[in-house]
Amino acid sequence: MTLGVIVGNRDFFPDRLITEGRQDILEVLAELGIDAVILDDDATKLGAVETWQNAKQCADLFKQNGDRIDGILVTLPNFGDEKGIADTIKLAGLNVPVLIQAYPDELDKLFVERRRDAFCGKISVCNNLYQYGIPYTLTKLHTVHPKTDSFKQDLRDFMGVCRVVKYLRSARLGAIGARPNAFNTTRYSEKLLQAFGISVSTMDLSEVFGQANKLEDKDLRVQESLQRIGAYIATDQVPPAAVVKQAKLAVVIDEWMQAYDITASAIQCWTSIQSNYGVNVCTIMSMMSESLMPSACEVDVTGVTSMYALQLANLTPGALVDWNNNYGDDPNKCILFHCGNWAKTFLGDDARMYNAPILGTTVGVENTYGTVEGKTPAGPFSYARVTTDDRHGQIKAYVGDGQFLDDPVETFGSRAVVSVPNLQNLMHHICKNGFEHHAAMTNSYTAAVLNEAFTTYFGWDTYYHNGTN
User: Fold this and answer.
1) N or C, fewer C-beta in 10 Å, the chain?
2) What are the φ/ψ torsions at residue 248 (nearest 5 degrees)?
3) Distance in Å from the first CA to the final CA of the chain
4) E strand segments, 312-413
5) What CA–CA distance (Å, rounded) separates 5 from 330?
């Protein structure tokens, strides 16, 4: 990823502060594998931005590299020139996230030769950006040295915000099949999503079955798909014919997604597939999610939007889950569950392909092979839900963090026991505000990143459950 970097300067502060600050920032960006688009140190005085002419030069440089700049970093080694910085961003017109970093002063260096005043300058920069209508992100600490762990984490989080903003605004989602008739809960507005920039392409299940049934078992594409499935998960408890059927489904879905540049999919996982084709599609969905091409159940398009957002925030897979069961009498614990399409990341080496016994009671267990079964081990847990609120014509969301637990749960399918501080308040919010029973999850802490992207840059009504609300 690439950041456009603006080094702010105010002329009467010492030149050495700008030279040192510019070098600090470039070293930190290189350490984190982030490319920089920055004025040459001889393009302006010290390669910094102060005057209107400097702003035009820097903005032109950013525009020339607009197709590769994911965000803008403003660094203030001293007070900086707030107007020059705001003018640069306005003239560049990139519409990308902006991070403001200001250097701390040292108590024994408040004399003229080393004084910075960036503590104050940051307030002025933010004031000008606010006046210009430019959204921006702040570091956790008001002033922070670039080479500290605190700022490096700020930068990692900011890159997550940049990914969410860049890729969610132009996401191409696939809806494969009609939603199950009983699931009004997964209804959504394509028009609200499209107005934001998210487009939805559709494919009927009859097309999937028709193309899959035409594939010969010996077709090279089918054989390669079988090899990928066998390398992904143990299939020894599944009839070989059921695995072949899944391999053919994978070929058809993969080729359709490539043809339409689909980045994430939502599939009618029951009951047409089981009744008319004879398998579950869960393993194929699990493999796609593991490969960072998230796939959601029950044609839950806004559910897979949530999965994709979590994935972009920290480059780890997402999964779609039901907020499914209480965990005994503990008000802050619950069980997450789905038949079995979670990415293997959530289940470890014990994951296996099996069947769906609940669904099997209506369609026959022999038609439900293809689930991924296992339990999520202890670790970090973030959750999110994006939805289209058609009654109010808006997109809204909730996000939060919790913990995966090793607490036992004797059941089948993909499952996890989680702890969420003040879980009862979260459940009240979900129910009172008409959210779905589905949520997306990931095994990293990403709620703050999504909250920043959703609220600051998308303007979505977002509830951030931090355990105290």
Assistant:
1) C
2) -70, -40
3) 35
4) 319-327, 330-338, 352-354, 371-375, 379-389, 394-405
5) 49
Contact 72, 39 (CB under 8 A): no
SS3 content of the chain, % helix, strand, coil (to 5): 45, 25, 35
Q: What is the band of 13 on the pLDDT scale with cuts at 50, 70, 90? A: confident
3-state secondary structure 181-202: CCCHHHCCCHHHHHHHCCEEEE
Would the CA dihedral through 304, 305, 308, 309 be positive or negative?
negative
Half-sphere exposure of 204 (CA within 13 A, CB side): 3
Q: Could you report the per-residue pLDDT of 330-349, keeping only the tens digit for each?
A: 999 999 999 999 999 999 77
Rounded Cα gap, residues 153 and 110, in angstroms: 28
- Say whether the peptide bond before residue 143 is cis (omega within 30 degrees of 0): no
Count Cα neighbours of 220 within 13 Å in the Cβ-side half-sphere.
0
Radius of gyration of the chain measured on its C-alpha atoms: 25
Q: Domains in the chain, please, with CATH? A: 2-168 (3.40.50.10940), 172-465 (3.40.275.10)
pLDDT bracket for residue 453 (50, 70, 90): very high
- Structure confidence by residue, pLDDT tens digits, 189-226: 999 999 999 999 999 999 999 999 999 999 999 999 99
φ, ψ dihedrals at 301, nearest 5°? -70, -45
Q: What angle do CA 258, 262, 263 make, to 5 degrees?
A: 115
Question: What would the two tokens of residue 275 be?
Answer: 């009744």
Cβ pair 58, 6 in contact under 8 A: yes
- Whole-number Å distance between alpha carbons of 227 and 221: 10
What pLDDT was estimated at residue 378? 97
| Per-residue pLDDT at 12 | 82
pLDDT over threshold 80, residue 110: no
DSSP state for residue 133 in the 8-state scheme: T
Nearest 5 degrees, angle CA 52-CA 54-CA 59? 95
Model confidence over 237-253: pLDDT tens digits? Answer: 999 999 999 999 999 99
- Please tell me the predicted confidence (pLDDT) of residue 5: 98
Structure token pair of residue 205:
């299940």
CA distance 320 to 339: 11
pLDDT at 107: 84
pLDDT tens digits, 143-152: 999 999 999 9
